[in-house]
Amino acid sequence: MTDSIAFNDVRTLRALLGSGRVTPTELVDVFAGRIGRYNGLSKAFITVTAETARNQAIRLKRTDLEQSTFAGIPYASKDLFDVKGVLTTAGSKVFHDRVAEADAHVISLLRAAHAISMGKTNLHEFAYGATGENDVFGTAVNAYDPTRLAGGSSSGSAAAVAFGLVPAALGTDTGGSVRAPAALCGLVGIKPTVGRVSTSGVVPYCWTLDHVGVITRTVADCADLLSLVASHDPNDPASINRPPENYADELDLDIAGLRIGVPRNFYYDRADNEILAALEDVKRYLVAQGVTLVPVTFPDMEHSRTVSLTVQMPEALSAHSAYLQRRGELYGADFRAGLALGQCILAEHYIKAKRFLEFYRQRTNRLFDDVDLLLTPATPEIAQKVGTVAIERNGVTETIGNAITRYTSFFNLTGHPALTMPCALHSLGLPIGLQLVGRYFEEKTILRTAQVIARNDRFSIPPPTAAI
Amino acid sequence: MQDVTKNTLAGIFSQMAAHGWSQSEIDELLEPRMGVITGLQDLLNELEEVRKIDLGTVPPAMGVRNTDTHD
Questions:
Q1: Do A152 and A182 contact (CB within 8 A), yes or no?
Q2: What chain A residue is nearest to B20 in terms of C-alpha separation?
């Protein structure tokens, strides 16, 4: 068995398993071998559980492989997800000894589906930050140019898929932490409707804005994996009690007649010209498929970043209060500074920010009276060099973290489902991504449209050479 | 609204229920050097603007549990 299958999508790997041309054990060995060779460069994994994965693969019976779309398929999870018996570091020294006593809800679903966990992936400490820079475990890099960031905070999950170390991974998204790294690494990432996927057993950063999401190589794999992890969880107070859905069952439908909103304000301002040009190309293609593009105006977003920060930092401080008292000296300096900021926010500010969330939700819902989806760039910039602090564009200087998540964070405030996917390669050889946003619980419309785009070769990008 | 000072922050952190933040952390709040956080004064100024915006009867967001339709 060679590395040649490492960049296949899950559906192709499933076909190989189904035909008997590849066994689950051989698949685990291929990916474990690649992790061994590429983890030093990619810094994608914090903990590798290849031996456990191999034992699980050996035990799988032929009938087990028919149980789900991910049976026998290796995957990884951001090191915030509890996997029973495995360390959950959250990318921090604070959790250096925190061995999970039970699986997170989504991990238990994947275990029941006979998917095979290969380990835990790197991240910005406690998911605080969009660059993925981590002083303890190193910084996960971009497979298209290892001198550049993978993006974060689910940096290791994106790097693991992009480097061909696993075909799919779980991440969390509080301001774009699944969608932005997926876009910067040329992958598909989805953050479903808030509450659709349980966060129980996942180390919290900000209860109000945290979402579990998935990162895959293709839209179809994204739909399949989301179908497995989207289920009601009575242990998660935010979990929504809706029946399971097969998110892949509308992938073959066309999109003629859909109305797609194109924001007049904010989303097409101050971005790399090649990104804007790529989106124009996508728009022309969508129109040719029978879509009507509708200009829309977003609610005033002048204060949205302040609102987001005002919700995030007090919640993070509350989530970490006990650990701060017991192990405060083990936190990274940047996260401690953020927590100190949370200490300065008054209750009135926090409540006002939560009211703004509701205001944004109502206004964004009204946009969906006129359109079925929204189309935006995924990020205003391509992946930046490791160590970049700020980006200047059109005379405006912006911290890199804010720039990476500028187009994604609003939909954590509103809770609408959103997907990013590649649509072009920049002249510097780095992926350009787009973002599709839908109504609550209408992930299928997003995925169907994404699949129509993905089917056209002119929007596909080559695999990263650094990983081959 | 006056600008916040180091003495004010040190006083708040020592005289009200708070975690034990170091002098360097207080410095980072007022003069950020790590490129991660917005300076506290900028944030406080923005929060003062936000506080003055009248949202009428809009309540705090409570999730989308009952929002099966889009409004």
A1: no
A2: A325
The tally of CA atoms less than 13 A away on the side-chain side of residue A41 is 20
Task: For residue A141, list its beta bridge partners.
Answer: A149
pLDDT of A422-460, one tens digit each? Answer: 999 999 999 999 999 999 999 999 999 999 999 999 999
Judge: B60–A415 Cβ closer than 8 Å, yes or no.
Answer: no
Q: Does this complex have an ipTM over 0.85?
A: yes
- Cα separation, A317 vs A322, in Å, equals 9
How many residue contacts between A and B have a Cβ separation below 8 Å? 129
**What is the tally of helices (H) and strands (E) in chain A?**
14, 15
B3 phi, psi to nearest 5 deg: -70, 145
| Predicted TM-score of the model (pTM) | 0.96
Burial class (CB in 10 A: 0-12, 13-18, 19+), A325: exposed
Burial readout A247-281 (b: 16 or more C-beta within 10 A, e: otherwise): bbeebeeebeebebbbbeebbbeebbebbeebbee
Model pLDDT for residues A313-350, shown as the tens digit of each residue: 999 999 999 999 999 999 998 899 899 999 999 999 99
Q: In chain A, which residue's Cα lies nearest the Cα of B32?
A: A337
A70-114 tens-digit pLDDT: 999 999 999 999 999 999 999 999 999 999 999 999 999 999 999
Active-site residue, selected from the candidate residues A43, A78, A191, A444: A78
Query: Is residue A378 within 8 Å of residue A180, measured between CB atoms?
Result: yes
